[in-house]
Design a protein that fits this description.
- Helices cover 35% and strands 19% of the residues.
- By secondary structure, the protein is α+β, with helices and mostly antiparallel strands.
- The longest helix is centred in the middle third of the chain and has 23 residues.
Length: 452
């Protein structure tokens, strides 16, 4: 019997009120709740094919073409174990024939083949997309009942993954139970609620972080007094304000809250001992640019947030996207002759280049343009959650092994240096997809006052 298989796609999400720190590392239970925007899968997604067969000798996983050892990966094993515990009878969706009985699943091993079309471990929530994809794909293949809350399983792989199962605006409620059964995701608003909200991701670095999020959280929990104060005293009220602002489509409030929370998150990283530096000089230049841009416009038209990495996620309304990108291209252009592929939408790039800067911006922000400081720019918007995709997107061959995908290595031009490999693959049709120090000092002042 050939392997049974299916393929799914899962989005990444960008937290606008962030979680940092765990009260239970084994179950990935956070010390505070969080909320995020799910990004459109046309721009940023993980595609995962799962296959199951009695002929497979062991569970195996390939990520971006490279096999990973899952035998000692506790997070992957936790997802495997939880999904298998809920397995049901699998029926063919078209014919209705029974393919696998519930009692047969223990005899079968799985092959998981996954690829991202954005950088892994660079602070763009690739683990969230990856573990959401793994959980959703396995749950569909193993016929897990729809009554099972998959977000509590995905959370055990990567905490933020629970927010990538649903689309739109999604909260992760921290819960209070020791077993984590109430620590799960909740959709605040669907993707259709605010289609005018857009996102620009400025990729400053696509290299892996020197300090992983997991390690960083552990050190912060152990050493940062500011982190404990933030989780208990700041985040709960900020979450209420953010959810209300998003439902009201109050862009200025959403942007300001996102910026304040991002600054405070990175302040806790500085308060960690030894300190953790996820932002770099380019990140700080982008922060300064955003505030100057808003001052020049006389209103809040841009907001920023940075996860555990140097890459900026900028929030902007559709009506201001061209003006905002034009200003970004002025201060953070590609190097000369390397503009092809710098932005993932050529039409938007062309329009933005022809757009004038807001009056007064250059005097408010007299920064010399920094060519190549930003490697490339993604434009996206709010999108749906994890979903099953057509079989023609399968990453596996008939035997359940990864298909061989080879992109031409002959193109060594500027496109290759600007655009990540998955997007270069899209261009050649291989794939089918398309002010921190101040915040720190202020936070510590608040903390000292609270302890007096």
């Amino acid at each position: 019997m050939p392997p049974v298989s299916l393929t799914i796609a899962s989005p990444t999400n960008i937290a606008v009120i962030k979680y940092w720190g765990k009260r239970n590392s084994k179950l990935n239970l956070p010390i505070n709740s969080s909320v995020s925007v799910t990004l459109n899968q046309q721009d940023l997604r993980t595609v995962t094919t799962v296959c199951a067969s009695r002929d497979f000798g062991k569970d195996r996983l390939w990520l971006n073409g490279k096999e990973e050892d899952v035998s000692g990966n506790k997070r992957v094993q936790a997802v495997f174990k939880e999904v298998r515990a809920y397995a049901g009878d699998l029926f063919d969706l078209k014919s209705g024939h029974l393919l696998v009985k519930r009692s047969e699943w223990p005899e079968m091993k799985v092959h998981v083949i996954s690829t991202n079309n954005f950088p892994t471990a660079a602070g763009l929530a690739s683990s969230a997309a990856g573990y959401a994809a793994l959980t959703f794909a396995l749950a569909q293949l193993f016929a897990v009942p729809k009554t099972v809350n998959l977000s509590t399983i995905a959370r055990q792989g990567s905490g933020s993954a629970c927010r990538s199962l649903a689309g739109g605006f999604v909260a992760w409620d921290m819960g209070s139970k020791d077993d984590g059964s109430d620590s799960s995701a909740r959709q605040v608003a669907p993707a259709s609620h605010w289609p005018e909200l857009q996102v620009l991701i400025l990729v400053v670095s696509d290299s892996k972080k020197t300090v992983s999020s997991t390690a960083g959280m552990d050190i912060s929990v152990d050493t940062s007094l500011l982190l404990a104060h933030r989780a208990a005293q700041i985040v709960p009220e900020r979450l209420k304000q953010m959810e209300s602002a998003y439902l009201a489509k109050d862009f200025a409030a959403v942007a300001n809250l996102a910026m304040q929370d991002s600054n405070q998150f990175h302040a806790t990283c500085l308060d960690t001992f030894p300190p953790i530096f996820y932002l770099n000089d380019v990140s700080r230049a982008i922060i300064g640019f955003v505030h100057a841009f808003n001052d020049a416009c006389g209103e809040v038209r841009l907001g920023y947030t940075f996860d555990a990495g140097p890459n900026a996620v900028l929030l902007v309304l559709k009506e201001h996207i061209t003006q905002a990108l034009g200003a970004i291209l002025h201060y953070f252009p590609p190097r000369a002759g390397c503009d092809v592929g710098y932005v993932n939408r050529a039409d938007l790039y062309a329009s933005a280049r022809a757009t004038a800067l807001p009056d007064g911006l250059e005097s408010l922000y007299p920064l010399t343009p920094m060519p190549s400081a930003v490697r490339y720019v993604y434009h996206s918007d709010v999108g749906p959650g994890a979903m099953i995709v057509d079989d023609d997107e399968s990453l596996a061959d008939a035997s359940g092994m990864p298909k061989v995908i080879s992109a031409s290595e002959s193109n060594k031009t500027c496109v290759s240096s600007n655009v990540p490999a998955p997007l270069r693959s899209l261009q050649v049709r291989v794939l089918s997809t398309a002010a921190i120090s101040v915040a720190f000092l202020f936070g510590m002042a608040v903390l000292r006052t609270a302890h007096k």
